[in-house]
Amino acid sequence: MLQGPIGSLLNTAPASAAGASPDAVRVFGVTLIGATPHNLHKLLLTVGFIAVAWAIAWILRQILKLFIGTRSGTRFQFWAKQGVSLIVAGILILGVMSIWFDSPGRLASVIGLIGAGIAFALQRVITAVAGYFVILRGKTFNVGDRILMGGVRGDVIGLTFMQTRIMEMGQSPREETDKRSWIHSRQFTGRIVTVTNDKVFDEPVYNYTHEFAYIWDEISVPVHLHQDLKEADRIILDATRKHAQTAERLGADEVKRMEDRFGIEAGAISPRVFWRITENWLEMTVRFLGPDHGIRGIKDQITREIIERFHRAGIAIAAVRQEAVTIPPSKDEDG
């Protein structure tokens, strides 16, 4: 029995109280359900265990920093952090369950009731956590990969149990699907976007870099039909071969890997120009292979060289022109 003023307000119920535990705590004469010294001991033990788990996580992260060193932001650091999070989460769950549920039958009943309630109230949260394990198990992406997920395109900079953080980038003018971005190219906007992991179940996740660190791109050049088309074709192809990826530049080992792994023939790697007749001109589109990052710089170099060599060769780039004709007023209108 507690003594003093506190004891007059908060005390244990007498053993004769109907339906009450002999050790039940009472406040203002009201018996608090489940509030017993035994449960209070479990609560304090739980708080202490959580503090110990947090300390273990902090120590493990400090140890990782000693091994990682300057390799911050790499995939090694990414998987190391995920491993620490999973280990600490597992220890925490097992520890808390061991403290509060010492009977297997009671544990199964409580888990069933709690699980049903949580599954209904936290459907999106549970789905996001499930998405986290799908991402890891399915190797959907890693930190540093360039992806399109949940309508957001960019490089993955972080992954937690429920969210993925992406360094956003713009989109090519050919796409023109996202009106929220002011960057009309595949370059960073400066915004960090958080996307919940449940998006992996709702829509496809496009990965620009996983296993295949290249992307195909195109540059279209309109040329008048009366120009030297063969010379224009040669200039475009030479400029593209100079700056884009080719089978020779990739090397025999990488070309063989691409052939064996993805079924891509060596001839498909080298740039190629395609012709298409329109109502106004001949559209020459060069298709080429480039790295997953820095494609805008390559397109800029190719475009500059094409324009310069077209100018030297006397080849004009076609464009739609409109002429304004001014009609002088008649004498009747002047008078």
What attributes characterize this protein structure?
elongated, Alpha-Beta Plaits, disordered N terminus, 335 residues, three-stranded antiparallel sheet, 11 helices, alpha+beta, single chain, 46% helix, five-stranded antiparallel sheet
Set out the fold topology.
Elements: H1 4-9, E1 10-12, E2 25-27, E3 30-31, H2 37-68, H3 75-100, H4 104-121, H5 123-137, E4 146-149, E5 152-159, E6 163-169, E7 188-196, H6 199-202, E8 206-207, E9 214-223, H7 229-243, H8 247-250, H9 252-262, E10 272-277, E11 282-291, H10 295-313, H11 331-334
Antiparallel strand pairs: 1-2, 2-3, 4-5, 4-8, 5-6, 6-7, 9-11, 10-11
Short description:
By secondary structure, the protein is of the alpha+beta class. It has eleven helices and eleven strands. Strand 2 and strand 3 form a beta hairpin.
CATH architecture name of one domain = 2-Layer Sandwich
Write the element-wise H/E pattern from the N-terminal end onward: HEEEHHHHEEEEHEEHHHEEHH
Beta percentage is 15-25%
Number of strands: 11
Give the helix/strand class.
Answer: alpha+beta
